[in-house]
Model the fold of this input.
Amino acid sequence: MLFLQKVLSQVLVGLSRTTILFIVSSGMSLILGVLRIPNVAHGSLYMIGAFMAFSVSHFFGGGSQGFWMALLLAPVGVAILSLVAERALFQHLYKREHLMLLLLTFALSLIFGDLTKLVWGGEYKSVPVPQVFHGFVNVIGGFPIPLYNLFLLAVGPVVAVLLWLFVNKTKMGKIARAAAVDREMVSAVGINVSVVFAAVFVIGCLLAGLGGVLVAPTVSVTLGMDHTLIMETFLIVIMGGLGNIWGALIGALIFGLSQSLGIMIWPQFGIIFPYLAVVIVLMIKPTGLLKSTW
Done:
């Protein structure tokens, strides 16, 4: 029974981590699938989302009200920042080589990192878990699950469904899918592709900010928290299939669970398990688990 509880505990940790990884990776995958931009600055926007969550939460006195306001306002703040960057910079380079856009996102990641240090300093920040999510819920076998982890497990499917509805059921989403296949043809029928690209870019970056807000109560908010995350995000997107949102979900599940279970099996080298999983998947299916949009 103790072993089963330990396994369940690690699975829960893995699934909670999976939620964050999926939300951030789905935003990366959306941008990559439509705009063909490998957005290196995605991790920096995730970090800025976490710092904005700290500021908003602190402004509203912390506690439950501060968290809910941060959950509402911080992703919007990241979206506004990304819109400014897209309108000022990206829209002028869409017809250039992908290498130009890649270098631009790399430069932005450095700029955003310095801006974050300038605004919030180098000290560790913390966002308290809201009062409503304090405590545990006992499930089968008396196994306790933290309420905040349950909240994260609920947020993941909601984001996945909303993203699916946007891509498949809205006019903007359908145009974005068409532009991903043949942007010249979409432009030829009188649709302003630039506006579509801006909307997709902002939504993808908003998801990065949302991931930062959600992870903030579980970790120390600090400079550099984007470095590992951006590498993991790229691996998940590649493993799932470039630009495939459902592939990002499956990749996040594999990455998150292999990481948490690997720590339980071999604590000293638990970090290698998710990367080993990526290698195995890509050896079996080099193009990714699901169909790539590239």
Residues 240 and 246 are 7 Å apart (CA to CA).
